[in-house]
Amino acid sequence: MWELYDILIEGIPPEARVDEAFEGPHWTMVRSGKGLGLAMTLVKSPEDETRPRILSPNLAGMALQELAQVAKSWNFGEASLGIAAINAWYNSPDQDTVKKCLQKPDMNAFDAWKERARGKKVTVIGHFPHLERTLAPLCELSILEKRPQKGDYPDSACEFLLPYQDFVFATGVTLINKTLLRLLELSRHCGLILVGPSVPLAPVLFGFGILDLQGFAVSDPELCAAVVRGENNTAGIFDAGKRVGLGKE
């Protein structure tokens, strides 16, 4: 059941250490060496947490692999820290796969895929910005959302829609809330594209039926940290790095 998470965690060297961890209102970050990993913040305040935390408040100096273990937590605040820890390793500019990705131009995931999606049945899990512009004119688009907007399907429609799609895009948040494994089962006939800053750029994920990883690599950790902490209100997360794609070879 936890194999996907365990393989990601085991790939982190035991000697890697957490330099800093911070939970912002929108993004959670973990810094380790040159790597800064991000994950979406799902829990906005301690009052919203339904399961108790097991982590101590001071995470600096902890083994990065140990912090990554809480990616499996059902406390989603801790789970965001765990995924951010995983991304601090796999999305680091020191990784050879990331170095190659950074040589390519910054590109929105849906712009990168729009020609392949042309004329196809496409489901996107999570209402990403500008889908009506990038994908809707080109394909038969269905959007699934936990909090549906006008025209969206509720996320429970995945059981009925995904088996009949040509391409499925899912937010990296599905790693945090543990829905990814079921989505992979439902889309195993076509493959799934994982999208967003919460996505680990880890080739090992291709072994689980993921077709493409459309993530984010931080190249300016100081700027990124300032944005996450709310110390820089003139820049955004994407100003601190590059949106990159890692495809299955």
TrEMBL record:
<protein>
    <recommendedName>
        <fullName>Heavy-metal chelation domain-containing protein</fullName>
    </recommendedName>
</protein>
<dbReference type="InterPro" id="IPR025251">
    <property type="entry name" value="DUF4213"/>
</dbReference>
<feature type="domain" description="Putative heavy-metal chelation">
    <location>
        <begin position="108"/>
        <end position="234"/>
    </location>
</feature>
<dbReference type="InterPro" id="IPR007161">
    <property type="entry name" value="DUF364"/>
</dbReference>
<dbReference type="Pfam" id="PF13938">
    <property type="entry name" value="DUF4213"/>
</dbReference>
<feature type="domain" description="DUF4213">
    <location>
        <begin position="5"/>
        <end position="90"/>
    </location>
</feature>
<dbReference type="Pfam" id="PF04016">
    <property type="entry name" value="DUF364"/>
</dbReference>
